[in-house]
Amino acid sequence: MAFWAKGRSVSAAASFDLTVKTYAVFEAVSLALDGKTVLDGISLALSERRVGIVGLNGSGKSSLARLLNGLRLPTNGKVRLFGADTVSVAAQLPRHVGFVFQNPDHQAIFPTVEEEIAFGLTQIGHDRTSARAEAVGFLRRHRCEFLADKPIATLSEGQKQLVCILAVLVMQPCILVLDEPMTSLDGLAAKRILQKLQSLDQTLIMVSHDLSALTGFDRILWLEDGRIRMDGVPGDVLPAYAADLDRRAAAEVWEGDGL
User: Fold this and answer.
1) What would the 3-class secondary structure string for the chain be?
2) What is the pLDDT of residues 137-192, one digit of tens each?
3) Which of 102, 109, 28, 97 is nearest to 62 (CA)?
């Protein structure tokens, strides 16, 4: 669940231009964590509705995704979302850019599904009473009302991840960023989550190791060692990335962690 400062300043709120076509701009962005450079000189502009991010573990995929909603801030360079510098508006970004983690247990914070959904509504101005009622209605619209009073701890992994996605969607973000949301799911649950995501009106930016989940996207970013190795349409990038994986797997000397 995302938090942001409800008492945001007028200047911060006014700095977002939600009508711009190019919603995200990276200007020579570098990011260092614990003294290690994890992203180096990233420059790109995003305007597509469906953007996938691929790369080996440690390539910088998750760090790039987190820069999009203020969970990380650049060490050097600038990231602009809807025209606003993320350093200046980090506290307000989750209102417009929702984030779904790989592990739903790291995201859900309330005992029941209804409470988890209702909390998101309180974040956008609903009082607690109306939030609980609207949460049930929201779950009904997504055909999930049967989950309302269930403890989140008792749900399947697929149901947990669905609840985390809905808990972000209820806040009506313009962009939904997902960091490997189907990694812990079985084949059926992963297919259902992907179908749900494909049906959404929001712009999607998704990190994934499942290349088949990204074939219908508009653009793919391939990260390697903290840099963009390739950027283009799925038909070009995904086969090139898959071929690179095959080459690495066949190498007599293993490259990277690869385990």
Assistant:
1) CCCCCCCCCHHHHHCCCCCCCCCEEEEEEEEEECCEEEEEEEEEEECCCEEEEECCCCCCHHHHHHHCCCCCCCCEEEEEECCEEHHHHCCCHHHHEEEECCCHHHCCCCCEHHHHHHHHHHHCCCCHHHHHHHHHHHHHHCCCHHHCCCEHHHCCHHHHHHHHHHHHHCCCCCEEEEECCCCCCCHHHHHHHHHHHHCCCCEEEEECCCHHHHCCCCEEEEEECCEEEEEECHHHHHHHHHHHHHHHHHCCCCCCCCC
2) 999 999 999 999 999 999 999 999 999 999 999 999 999 999 999 988 999 999 99
3) 102
CA–CA dist 89, 91 (Å, integer):
6
How far is Cα 1 from Cα 99, in angstroms, rounded to an integer?
Answer: 8
Q: What is the pTM of this model?
A: 0.90
What is the Cα–Cα distance from 190 to 18, expressed in whole angstroms? 31
